[in-house]
Task: inverse folding
């Protein structure tokens, strides 16, 4: 029994110590974990540093969904992706970091697409405030002429 | 015995002293409020860690004043700064590139203004090559069209009208980017160019005013390179039968390594650059 568990299931331990039991097919969607499994350097428990339990649960949820719906319609998957990545900016940032660090290509694609959608159609100041942490007051007072130059139409 | 004539210069002196003090106060206020872009990052980082530690303020002894103005500034700002807001600036370059690659061209040009980091990233020739190859290889992403000034279409708005989604002649694509090749200065000069060939995302132009001027242009970064004039002189000034060919070679990273322009005139003489 335990050997069959070892064969098919992997235990992922997040940075704050929580453990997740995941099927191997799901876990190897992350390239980094896949490499560890293939090199046989992973024992039963795989530590996932830099990723806390909350984010790791999200990533696992995403991978599971993608693994299940391999044969399903791609449009379903797309709607799931767009709903999945529709989170607050903090979670988005953490997810991107985790996906990049664990090398989950599908998740990274979906997240980057989402951020691109957020950037699309926004003015320069919006992008600055939203993504670079500039403050509205600072932008207004910093350089008036330069602001006008930035906001000109690019057609 | 009237003391007033003696007091008058002192009065002026005090007046000037006060004015000078107020001037100093005003200058500190300006330097605090109108922070220049170069100061953004440092001031942000300071605020993110602990806004009231006053690391750079205690030098002049006006720490209280600085803190006061900083608190005013904080109340005036509409967006509360959270520590995660500026985290996107610290994302690794690969992710930023991935995000930028997914933008349509118009937003991409806007993003050049966001910060110096983004500007240098977008104007990188490698990025533009990657962008073009990504757009060409994936059919799902909306294509972009190249718009350029041509001698037979007299007015620029006409082309735009023809390309607008309302006109029936145009393909029903809602989400395409129109990219005008000419820069603002060229509009003013009213120079006109003709696209002769394209290869791997680069274009070969010739100027219509002087036939011997050739340009190679990258439409994404809007870089123009003027080719040197061919040293074989043309025998007839206005030759009709001139063909130009253009090949850009790229390496495995899709980075253009070299390009070659071939020019065939009617007498089968060829010119290579």
Result:
């Amino acid at each position: 029994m335990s050997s069959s568990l070892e064969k098919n299931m992997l235990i992922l331990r997040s940075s704050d110590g929580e453990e997740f039991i995941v099927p191997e097919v799901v876990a190897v969607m992350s390239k980094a974990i896949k490499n560890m499994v293939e090199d046989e350097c992973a024992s039963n428990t795989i530590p996932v540093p830099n990723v806390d339990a909350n984010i790791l649960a999200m990533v696992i949820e995403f991978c599971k969904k993608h693994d299940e719906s391999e044969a399903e319609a791609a449009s379903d998957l797309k709607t799931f992706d767009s709903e999945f990545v529709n989170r607050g900016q903090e979670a988005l940032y953490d997810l991107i970091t985790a996906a990049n660090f664990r090398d989950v290509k599908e998740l990274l694609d979906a997240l980057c697409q989402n951020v691109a959608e957020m950037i699309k159609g926004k003015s320069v100041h919006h992008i600055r405030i939203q993504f670079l942490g500039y403050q509205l007051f600072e932008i207004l007072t910093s350089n008036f002429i330069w602001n006008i130059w930035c906001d000109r139409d690019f057609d | 015995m009237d003391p007033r004539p003696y007091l008058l210069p002192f009065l002026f002196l005090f007046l000037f002293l006060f004015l000078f003090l107020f001037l100093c106060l005003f200058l500190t206020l300006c330097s605090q409020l109108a922070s220049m872009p170069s100061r953004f990052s440092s001031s942000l980082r300071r605020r993110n860690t602990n806004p009231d530690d006053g690391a750079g303020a205690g030098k002049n002894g006006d720490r209280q004043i600085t803190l006061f103005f900083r608190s005013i500034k904080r109340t005036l700002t509409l967006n509360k700064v959270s520590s995660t807001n500026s985290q996107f600036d610290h994302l690794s370059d690969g992710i930023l590139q991935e995000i930028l690659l997914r933008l349509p061209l118009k937003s991409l040009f806007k993003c050049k203004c966001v910060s110096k980091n983004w500007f240098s990233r977008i104007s990188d020739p490698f990025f533009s090559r990657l962008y073009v190859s990504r757009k060409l290889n994936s059919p799902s992403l909306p294509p972009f069209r190249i718009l350029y000034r041509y001698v037979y279409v007299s007015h620029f708005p006409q082309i735009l009208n023809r390309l607008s989604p309302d006109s029936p002649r145009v393909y029903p694509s809602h989400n395409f980017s129109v990219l005008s090749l000419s820069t603002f200065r060229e509009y003013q000069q009213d120079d006109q160019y003709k696209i002769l060939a394209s290869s791997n995302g680069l274009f070969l132009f010739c100027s219509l005013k002087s036939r011997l001027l050739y340009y190679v242009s990258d439409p994404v970064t809007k870089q123009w390179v003027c080719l040197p004039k061919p040293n074989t002189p043309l025998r007839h000034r206005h030759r009709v039968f001139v063909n130009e060919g253009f090949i850009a070679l790229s390496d495995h990273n899709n980075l253009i390594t070299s390009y070659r322009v071939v020019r065939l005139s009617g007498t089968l003489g060829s010119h290579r650059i």
